[in-house]
User: What shape does this take?
Amino acid sequence: AAGVIQSPRHLIKEKRETATLKCYPIPRHDTVYWYQQGPGQDPQFLISFYEKMQSDKGSIPDRFSAQQFSDYHSELNMSSLELGDSALYFCASSLGPRGDTEAFFGQGTRLTVV
Amino acid sequence: AQTVTQSQPEMSVQEAETVTLSCTYDTSESNYYLFWYKQPPSRQMILVIRQEAYKQQNATENRFSVNFQKAAKSFSLKISDSQLGDTAMYFCAFMKRYNTDKLIFGTGTRLQVFP
Assistant: This one.
């Protein structure tokens, strides 16, 4: 069965650079969530989209932005990277309120800022 | 606001034994979901089991079962016949229902299964 695809799997950037993380949800899933998991921490919600509109916003820095495109894939753009942005970034998708609310996670993108 | 608390940072169990991981939560919502996710060393987030708050019957998935006490806002996970592959970080999570809502995670319990 198709799963949530995240790319790239690993990314190394220097401070002050920009990074773009991509998420391809499970087919027919209309809701995408982004989470950030720092070393030894629980996942923290960043932002979510439902039907290409932002549905909720968490502790996402102003340096980050995200969007969901017409094909439902989502991109998380991170600018002016800081060492503290080094983390595992998860994308999850679900059918939202119309269906099963179980969220399926991608394998994550490990971002290292040096 | 909802909060999820896991008071056991680390647990260990011998292979084939049973272990229970604790989770409590706080919410004013009446409809919600509760989940247990497993995160092995690969860091993949894997759904172990979920419980709908309106269902009184405790969820069960093979060797995994929950003890859901809605009034006490308690949601513990029991792992029977523990296996080496159960070694992982386990996160309890909360999500409101009827909403494209986010998951709110606890801080996790690191479970080590010993041979």
